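Hi there. Long-time user, first ticket. I'm pasting a complex I've been working with (about 628 residues overall). I'd like to know whether the download I got is complete or cut off, because the file seemed smaller than I expected. Thanks.
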Amino acid sequence: MNRMQNFKNGLIKDNPVFGLYLGLCSTLAITTSINNAIGMGVAVICVLILSNVIISAIRKIVPDDIRIPVYIVIIATLVKIIQMLIKAYTPALDTSLGVFIPLIVVNCIILGRAEAFASKHGVLDSALDGLGMGLGYLLAVLAMSFIRQILATGVLSMTNPFDESQVLFAITLIPESFTINLFSTPVGAFVTFACLAAALGAYKIHSEKKAAAQEAEKAAAAKAAAAAKAAPAGKGA
Amino acid sequence: MKFAFHVSPNLQSPNSTQKIMRELTIGLLVVFAASDIYYFVQYGAGVGLQALLLLACSLITTFVCEAIFAKVKKKDIKSFLSHSFGWVTSIILVMMCPITITPYAVIIATVFAIVFGRLVFGGFGYNIYNPAAVGRAVIFASFSGATTRIISGATPTAQLSSLFNWLPGTEAALDAYLNTVGGWGGLAMGFYPGAIGETMSVLILLVGAYLIWRNVIDWRVPVFYLGTIFVMGMVIAALTGIEAWHGIPAILWYPLLQVLTGGVIFGAVFMLTDPVTMPTVPSGRIFYAICAAAITVLIRVKGNLPEGCMYSILIMNTFTPMIELALDAPQLKQMKKAWTMIACAAVFALCVAFYGSTNKPQRAVPEELKSAYVMETAADHTVSALDKEAL
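Hi, the file is complete. Here it is re-exported in full:
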């Protein structure tokens, strides 16, 4: 149950991008197309799960004083592997993501999860946490690139990442003369990000209020039940 | 004898926000109407109606956005609309746009100006940036190509920037430029295409003088803003050694050209003086105006953009809270600090002028204007750039 909760938290409530504001640099930079977002998201998921598992496995033998350098070395190794794989199999993705693949090393989500979760929990828990957080990141970049791509180019399209010439789907939603170029620039990224983060914040406040109201109702019901119980007892005496 | 006791503030201005905004709106509409009449007369009813269409689009978008916001915030829609003065933003926004812009671009820019420039900060009185300038920046960033081709060709301001790099160096070059705007008189009266509201310099100055007299805007901001641009123009003219024009020395005509061309007069009267986004301290306002002028000239002479007025306003809006904070001191201390700050701003403006005078003056008459020179014999104003087929 608790494991499931951990996993779910990363997706929506503690979404690493919109809830915890981690790893924004790459999020703002690469969310210009859905292809980029999926490529980046998958790369981050792979690195996050593997790094969480490895760090969690060695957490008892790493001296506390040098844990950060050790984590960084592990993460950097994993990122290098992923980068080489991307270069080898999806060269188009490599050119469009560019420097942001090696920059996964310094992505706050990965080091943050290593520090906050993997170094304190078991291997399976850490893997699940990595998957949840990674999926949360993927969801966030997908949502942002979805909005930005539609508004900036008017076309919702995706190509096969292994073969750039093969277009999986391309739907024109906005005619070309009505597109808003602004959303392909960093300004548009910031605006989109702010709107989505505000929406998540509003949802959080709303659900908290709801939970508080429910709790209050429950407490009131319990009180009433206790009073009802006490009343006949008092009469009997 | 009866004493009346009040809580402070005891000195009350007869001007209410409602009244100030009403007079500002009337002032803006006068300029807009004059400009629209010019388009009617010069280019026909289609172009004249286009300006009204743009204004209508912007106003409707503003009211829809604000009504939705009021609804979401569970406020009374009618009182929210009348206390938020959104129409001032949309009128200024439309007046900053060239008439060739599409209604769609205006609608999107208005949404950005009202929602992201204003409402998310808390509505009227809380916005950091001038909302109309935010909307104009959105158009700059997104819709630079989206024009309806009602009037084709570059506006004289854009030409002065692209062909002359803001420095027509000889009599012939200046004459070629003045031909496109109908001489000095045309330049001052605003009978040439440009942004809808910014061309009619003399009229805007008259409206500005009236608004200053009515205490609607602060005289310091336009005076110091335009004055600094004028002085910087004099410095640039003196250092680059551009020629006199029919006996008038360059240090007189060049600063006049800097002030009359483009949107600085409109910006000085209607945008820099926005009471929400400018500093409240009088000496702070002087500092603010001088810095804005320096940034305007810097963007003009060294930047890629044709005109720097709007971005200089946005940049200085960023510093407004800092200026307020710096001048939040006891009176004497504040005065001393203010003098230091103003001196620094003046030095900054001078440095910009020196830096700007490293540009080379354009001495030859550009090819693009030579043909217009010949055409001039046929028409009063050479920019007969009306694209009749598009109508």
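A couple of notes from our side: Residues 45-72 of chain B form the longest helix (28 residues). Chain B touches chain A at residues 102, 104, 108, 116, 138, 141-143, 146 (CB under 8 Å).
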